[in-house]
Each structure stands twice: as structure tokens, then as C-alpha cells.
Amino acid sequence: MDISKAKALTSPRMRKRRIGRGTGSRRGKTSGRGHNGAKSRSGWSSRGLTGGGVPLWRRLPKGGFSNAPFKTDYGIVNVAQLNGFPAGSVITPEELGRIGMLKQVPNGGLKVLGNGEIDRALTVRANAFSKSAVAKIEAAGGSIELIPGPKRPVRNKMGHKAAARLAAMDQSDAAVTGEAEEAAAPQEEAPQEEAPQEEAPQAEAPQEEAPQEEAPQEAEPQATDEQEA
User: Which of 1, 101, 185, 191 has the most Cβ atoms closer than 10 angstroms to its Cβ?
Assistant: First the structure.
């Protein structure tokens, strides 16, 4: 072996950089971090910093749940405002909207409150009443009628197509369940009609042939010796 041809052993990893070992190592005093500032301190991280731009966490849309679309909001009318109707009238949300007293019916519908006084008998149809409004309307000789409110919005984050697909799946599951219940229910056996049985052809017994009587054969006359002579 020639020592001039020997090669140093190579390592798959780089040697760890030794810092803070004096100024002669070129990474001594400040250990390659510069002099002052946040970067020279331990624990500093550049995550979320984009210079003068808006950070990513501020650019992304904020998710979460909001109860605003599902809040029960009523259109408010006080009993004092109903004195403009003639006695015996039937007051509905549609009638109030027609005259402009209720411009838009919210998702909760119409609610009648008891502010003021009422001096005539009216039939009031609304989605909700306060206790004082009920007492004043009935004291004036009128009556109240509760009506169902408007249909509330359905929270659906998956979109209309996914909702339609889920509805179709529910219908198919209901159909399968109904078929299974029908199969499990005891079924009454319908009376079976007996099919007319065809009579099998009877084999005819072989007829025995009657023994035929043999006719007597006539004996041939034998020549006698006398005739031959």
C-alpha cells in the first residue's frame, strides 16, 4: 500500500459547526447572530412575519358558527297602533304589511306588545303576544289567534347538491326499512285453490285369447290288402 494514494474517510454528515469558541474561530463572540435585535435572542421565530405585508393568518377567512341567521326576530306592533282599525276587524300580518305598518316580516313573524291602550274589539292574528297585550285585547272584547311563524332557514354548509344527495339517501334508506318491515311482518297465506287432478289413463289388462278348438281331421282311407290284390 502506497501512503501517497491513501484517501481520507468521508462522512455522510457535515461536521457540527462549533460556535462561541473565541474570535479566532470566526464564530466566537456573537456566534453568527449579529450584535443586537430579536434575531440574536433565543426563542425568536420568523413564523407569521411577512415584512410589510399582511400576515397569512389575517388574510385567511375566519370560520366558525354565527347564530345571526337563526335568531328569532319579531316584527313589533303595539296595541295602541291597532286603534286605527274599525271595530270587528280581523288584523293579520298581511293586512299590516299592506297598509305599511309592518314593512317586512322577520323570520319570527309578528309579535303584538301591550304598550298603550285599545278601545275596540278586534280579532288579532299574530305569531306571538305579550301577556299585557293579551289582557288588553280581551278586556276590550276582542280575541287573539296564534298562527305558525315563517319557515326558519336551515344551516347547510355542504351546499344544495349535497343536501339533495343526502335527502335522496334518506328516502332510499326509508324505502329499504319499509321493505324489511313488510318482509318481517307475518303474511297471511291465501287459500290455495286445488287444481283438478287429471285421471291417469288406466292400462288395459291383456285379454286372454280363448283356446281354439281344432277341427277333427278326416282319416285317409287306408288301402287294404284285398284291394291291392
Answer: 101
Task: Note the pLDDT tens digit of each residue in 69-105.
Answer: 778 889 999 999 999 999 999 999 999 989 988 887 7
In the chain, helix, strand, coil percent, each to 5? 30, 10, 60
The pTM assigned to this predicted structure is 0.42
**Cα(25)–Cα(208) distance, integer angstroms:** 138
Set out the domains of the chain in order of their start, with CATH numbers. 72-146 (3.100.10.10)
CB 174 within 8 A of CB 180: no
Per residue, the 3-state secondary structure of 86-117, as one string, reads: CCCCEECHHHHHHHCCCCCCCCCEEEEECCCC
Strands (E), the chain: 74-78, 90-91, 109-113, 123-126, 128-129, 143-146
Q: How far apart are CA 106 and CA 71, in angstroms?
A: 10
Query: What phi and psi values does residue 215 have, to the nearest 5 degrees?
Result: -70, 140
Contact between 127 and 148 (Cβ < 8 Å)? yes
Residues ≥6 apart with Cβ < 8 Å to 33: 39, 40
Q: Which of 153, 146, 50, 46 is nearest to 106 (CA)?
A: 153
Distance CA 23, CA 27 (A): 7
Distances (CA, A) of 73 to 52, 110, 131, 176: 44, 9, 18, 41
Contacts of residue 145, defined as CB under 8 A and 6 or more positions apart, other chains included, come to 123, 124, 125, 126
